Structures
1.
Amino acid sequence: MNAGAETGTAPPLNETQAAPAPRALPPFIQRLKNPAIAALFPLAVVVFWHFATYGRKFSLIPPPSDVAIELYDMAFGGVWDDAFSQTLHIHLLASLSRVYGGFAMACAVALPLGLMIGRLPFVRQLLDPTFQVLRPIPVTAWLPLAMIIFGLGPRSAVFLVFLGAFYPVLINTIFGVRSVDPRLFEAASMLGCEGTAQFFKVVLPASLPAIFTGLRLGLGFAWVVIVVGEMTGVQTGLGAIIMEARQLSRTEIVIGGMIVIGIAGFISDRIVMWLGRRLLRWSPNNV
Amino acid sequence: MSEATVPILELKGLTKQFEFNGDRIDALRDANLRVNKGEFVCLIGASGCGKSTLLRIVAGFETATRGSALMWDRPIEGPAPDRGMVFQDYGLFPWLSVRKNIGFGPSSRGRPSAEIKDTVDRFIELVGLQRFADAYPHQLSGGMKQRVAIARVLANDAEIVLMDEPFGALDAMTRERLQDELLDIWQRTGLTVLFVTHSIEEAIFLADRVVVMSPGPGRIDSQMQITLPRPRDVVASDFNDIRRELSLRLHSHHARKAA
């Protein structure tokens, strides 16, 4: 919830860049240093995974090479030519559209609502207690109800994504609006900026860092929830193939699907971060 | 010459009470003060003497419990651009560049953009921040931030500048330089300044008139006209005479309270 504290602690992590190299390395190697360090741990995991599973006939977990081949087949086909071949883009697109659709709807509702709850005492008194009670209900607990209301199928999944993204965006928006330095309202009003103009010229920009934290968290949750949402009664989507593959004991597809979700979630987080960095260049807490 | 006798600001019987644990505390009691146009007035006093409260009532951030605060004979109702406040903690908009911070007032009041640009350029130059026009506040030193804050109220046509210990958070060197710069701006623009400080030296160095306030309840104790020619020498003997006299007046309250 605390946007400032979270981003405020981030910079020291990057200070490894500042450490002077004993011998000057070419710049392109310098630039590859951090990604290289980041790749060390996953690489170790893959190596361990390989030796733990490769060549064991009755291993329930396939070795990484099997997963890689399966991923290649799902993406481009030409290896197994089964029901999963060359279907990755369909599932990925389906999940992407649900994630971003549900996320966009969550933003469309949570942002204005958060701004109002943060700013207007009456709306706060009216709605805040209700949201406080609804918030602890896990998104997955909504699944049966969602299926009754929206029917079996992708609409339930989108609804769950909506719910998953809704609260982080809402809570952080409220927090952002409520923690605007009162001094800035004084400054604005003595300079002739009052009423609704203050909302757009002070409240909105001042709460933008917290709102962005909410967007990042919300999108993260959207990716978590999409898999649950697609696991029942949906034909397409990464969650759907994971579920289907599980029933067929095609564990390499399950793991492949997990990897794709991880990468897709990572990239979409990077996009929000990049956007935030551009919009929040003014912020001393900007990472 | 008649203008000098018309008060730009007049406070009559100004009283501010706060509720504190069910008790009524007088933060300010029966303050009477006239400030003439173009005058530089310093309020000094220990903490709790109501000097900041007085300033905030003039700014329109707080309302008086009793009494009246008049600007050009009209009651003060809320904050307005004719009274610009410079805060100790700057109060700059962190998401706006120096240029946009200074232009905030004019643009809020719907001035045409060409005029805003002219105004902003003029005041950026006045406070010497040309090189930092596009920097954000967090990239500036405290002294630079305070220059921006001063330029911001000047660019907004403030007639009276209210300064609440504006240099209190700055180091001594920066503080002295900004005092000089402020005097220079004041002399060039014919502003009226109401300046709160707890430094006797700062008050004597800057002011035409020093208003001594005393705590518990906060009230105006006495006033002293400073007639030393400017620029003032803070180690001159006549400067020290005034310093001793003001110090005596300030500390007499402590003695009285202790007794």
2.
Amino acid sequence: MLIAALALWAGQAIAQPSQPPYSADGLYNLANTYARAGKPGLAVLNYERAAVLAPDDPDIKANLAYVRASAHVLVKPRNRFVRLGEATNPTTAAWLGLLGVALVGIGLVVRRIAPRLLWIPGGGFLLGVVLIALTASNAMLLWPRMHEAIVLIDQTPARVSPVPMADTAFLLREAESVTMTAEHEDFMLIRNGSGLSGWVSRANLGAVVPPVGGER
Amino acid sequence: MRWSKIFIASLCLLAPVEYAMAQTLDELAFETIEPSRIKLGESAILRVTSFGRIKDVALPTIPGLIFETMGRSQGFDFINGSTLPATFFLIRITPQFAGMFSIPGLAPNSRSIGLEVVKGDEPNPYTWRSQQPAPAPVVTASLPKGVQLQAGGAAFVHLAIPARPVYVGESVPVQIEVGLRAGIVTSVNGLPTLKGSDFTFNNLSKQPERREETIEGGAFVLLTWHSALAAVKPGEFALSAQAPLTVKMSTLSAADRAVASRLAFPLLQSMYSGIAPREMTIESSPFQLKVLPLPTEGQPDNFSGAVGEFRVSSDVSPANVAAGEPLTLRLHISGAGNFDRVDSTMFDHLDHWKTYPAKSTFTPSDAVGNEGEKVFEQPLIAAQPGERSIPGLEFSYFNPNTRQYERAQTPAIKVIVAASLASGVSLDGAVVTGATRGLRPDHRIPQNQVSELRPLYFRVPFLIIPTTLALLLAGSWFAVRPRAARATSKAAERVLAKLDAAARTGDSSSFFEVARQALLHNFAIRWQMPVDQITVAELKARLGTSGEAVERLFAIADEAKYSDYHSGRTDFQHWLSLIRGQLAGDRE
């Protein structure tokens, strides 16, 4: 009963959106609007968000690359394995992982019931393991993006300490991607592509995956 | 007695005269205004002097003037050397806008007076502390040719137009000059008007030029207005100007005026002079204006009707823009002519540029708008980056001086258009490689929506589902334990089927060998031990008395394998019953 209640609650929590809905197409169109308005930071942020939902969309990839190139923001090319892993839709990967768990479990039970029927539960078990591995790799590749942010304001100062009057360590370009490693009040400790770290005001950053209940 | 009679008789004779004089004094009053020309924002003082028993004066209502009573006082005034008791009423007049005002007489039989109000930036020659230079000395002049004095010689109006023929649509400057004899013409009751059909008129200049001249021995104030007209069709037309005035004129005949002039007492002269203000309109002599049609030969296609003499120039700002951003192209057309016919059709040929409706502003350099500069501002947007050229603009007009059509052209202007985000080229002009031929178009209205961007496998509610599923499956795995009998039941049935077949054919060798192998496997599973470790002693120990029968079956199997053992049908059934019993015992 407890398990059934938990499953029911989880299903309802997933089905009922608690925030205004996101969609890959909506974010893509919004990013296009920002790009046309000459705001590459907001454009890249929304392209990145759209890419989280639809990583295999060629339009998103093309426009993201174009806006970054126009803003003179360079990104390191990802290797083939990463591109392959990221090409899977996270939502699809999540449900495939769930199917994998089911296949592995059912295979074990069937093997337990009928030890001599090796090929049927064995095939399901193997397929389940592959699906779980696919989901796990997808999650591992997406995990860094949970802490990725886009610089929204050109010449954003990265300061040596999280106070407004602190010295500027270096400047960030608009539309540049950074990794958030810590936070303190209104400042985020970031690390850019060159490995430099500094404190940046939250207002100048946009998280690719916004926190639950946070700013969109 | 005689002298007394004469004195009384004289009094009786003079009584009517005194009565008449008293009545005259009751009605005698005059008004003065100081100063008569003021600036807007200043005030003038109107003084009403009454020699009668007037208690109060009623303030008039004149649009643009505010009247305030300052006070009333008694005193004496000197008239022709005589001292007369008088009552003075002081009224402050404050104007609200510039112009020439005529104030009617406030006391009975008093005359109207004029007040001229000028704007604050104009010189006031009557101001005591004026810093402006003194007014020019009055010059002696004669009447313009063909002009006659009107209103009893008190005023004239003159319309000055170029004598040459004009063209249809040509803006022709005109000048209306009104001469007013000082002291006779009390006010100008409005702006002069042009009288003539088939013309369009510009507005008159707001303030007339003012000068003073002596014409035919009299002091005249000359007011000059400027305007411009344009003929709407060819032909020969009459044109004249009119001006409304108030003039002091005598209402008596010549004989009456001669009688009045013989009266010795000035007051009596004043009473019988018959001079009163009179409103009238004077008109200039008609002017014959010949209007020529515009020639059709050589008329450019882009001719919009502009007639005059013009110059054109253009500029653009900013000179460097990004693609998609607007810049402003300004076309300056200056000169003299009918600027109302100068339109923006020259912008119709700006290919490769996105345009919006142009707006224009006209800045006149004269009072009537015949000369000046018209500036067109045309917003332009370049769709493609790079070095772009705004083509030269051509403006065609008819020059009445040269009597031919002329074209004025501006040079082409080069503009550097940088790339924008939507142009497919980076901001520094370098072509971006890859799939970067500009932004790809928007997608359709989204259908699939999620509540948050975090993938499902990072959300706790979703993770509960596979966890629950895993728990359920794990519980199932533990719940369904494997059973050996279930696993071997089908194999036992197959063995029994083989034994039946061997018994039917009488193949004792196969029968006993299959039976032995089946029982050994069965015992190995039941006892969880290898087949080769099942010995005779083990059989006896585990099976008891039935072990002897099984031992006997194994011995027969050896015998049948290595010798020619023959068994009857009865023996097969016995042994089958034994084997079935052992295998069934395993399933229980």
